[in-house]
Amino acid sequence: MARRGERKTRTRATASVPALTPEPGRVGIRVFREEYRGRTKVHSIDPSAYQCSMLTAQLADEWLKLTRATSLSGGGENYAAAVRSFAKFADRHLTELGQDPAQARLDGHAVDIVEVLYEWEGFLRQKHGLQSKQPYNKARALLALIAQRAATDPGVPENLRLRAQAPAAFRRPPEQPLDEFSNAERVALRDAARTAVRTMEARLEMGATLLAAGTDPRIGGWREVPNLLWATHKRMLSTETLRNNLPKNTPYWPQAVRDLLPPPSEDPKARKPGFRVLGRVLSRLLFPDTLDLQAFRVLLLLSMTDTTAEELHDLQLPDLEFTDGGLRIVQRKMRASRIRADLHPEVPAPGGTEAPFYAAGGAWDTVGLMRRLLAATARAREVFDPHPWLFLAVERQHDSGHLEAELAQFRGRDRRFTHWIAAQRDARGTPLKISEPHEVRRLRKTSKVVRAVALGGTVSDLAGDDHHIEVYRHHYAHGTTAHILAGQAINRSQEWVFQRATQAPVLVEEETEARLEEPEVAGNLGLSVDQAKAMRAGELDMGLVNCRDPYDSPHTPGNKLCHVAPAMCMLCRNAVIFTSQFPRLLMLADRIERLRAALPPPTWQAVWGRQAAALKAVFTEYADRIPAARQEIAELDLRLDLPLGQRTEFDR
Prior knowledge:
This protein is mainly alpha-helical.
């Protein structure tokens, strides 16, 4: 028994602690960030969003590896899209087959990935259609990722390794190159863009006038338009600010403020203009937005034939240098890895036609357009943080409602080229009728075609200084205007050949031959008096028929003596046949007929067929004279006098 004050250590029984079951590890999100045109773009793949998370993670790892190693433009978004599409399909397809998608992986054998790949490609074919490039592009991208994995991972099955090395199941559909705009469409777009620029300049000038009269709305009140513009200029205005300082209902706004709003839409389901629309209207009175800059983009692409839409969009202020002779622009073509500087000379513009504030000389050439664009964006560069981009647009942010200046996003929502076209009107107020697709690259082709038409339409003109002939053949020769120019050139050449080849020799009767030296008779036959006298004297006898001018032969260019007479005289416009020369024509026809038996039919037809047809036409027209000519040949024992170089051809 323990004494008082003593403590005995008690040994307690300890229960075993159950082992904790580890939670399944979460597959991390693969993220790739890139700086593109002044903005940070985030591309990501979340493998945990799919049941086949391990397979998705392996493919996402290969996507990141490929994107970082090769610096793919756009963050390799086409590869990421292929991974997401395949993972989503694999979840549904494997579940329908009764297999567990979680067992799918590139280095495993539980799921046959090759069969899933074939099913996925067939699904893409049905989803996108036969003319879409998406099935081919996605399949090729995914196979490239699998092939990259197979090159470093020996656990990839052999059948999957071989499938990754093979091409996609379906071929890429043939490309349909873009056609240029017609000349009427080009003029309509040009005029609409000029009208839009004038309207924007007038709007900015009005905004500048109102801004000069404005004051701090916290002192002068929020119900005056100049004060609202003052707050906009100081970057104090947002949707929330307007909502806190103006009545909730639009009809209670001041009339001057309501007059700024656009008319309500005819669509009953459309929302009536409110605080957001008012904020955008106030912003556009001081700064141009993306749709305003679309007009400059159209005009510059039409005037700068050697600039692509991407090069123009990427221009920054340091790339522009105004000189005494014009404007020097440094352009960068990323696909060709080429940097070049072009000088655009300044064209004097007619004065007195434009507003003086933003006129910049009133010119619509490249130099004038650049000056007008810089003048329109000057206030935005002063108010906001300095941006080097040429196409600097001020847009209201959807999340905060505040104004921000950034590079114009011409592919943004409701800011595309097609939206700009839909908002334009012609001189009669009707919407523009522009053929689809509304693709801005067609403007470049249109400007090149206009230059080709002005320069004559040759291949080198159409290709231009910044292209090779092969580039022209693949990307420009298919155009409608190019086909029209080529067809016109072919028609002109064929007409020239036919006119020179189908002009038959002139037949002169015996009665006319006696009076050939008379001016009226010679003129009716297309001869001069000197030519008629020479023919009568035998000076222009070519051995078969007479010739107007042996030095003007269509078969011997360069004002040289004809070297094909008399073999080609029946096909020459200069030939003049006297009826006394019929025996010679009969002997020539006999020699050509003998050659029919010596030569293959195609060869004889190609070489002598036209001459034989011409002789037959003469003999048919003067059939009554042929027996007398035959008798003359027999009685006088005539022989055809041929040049030494042609005897082999006729006597073979």
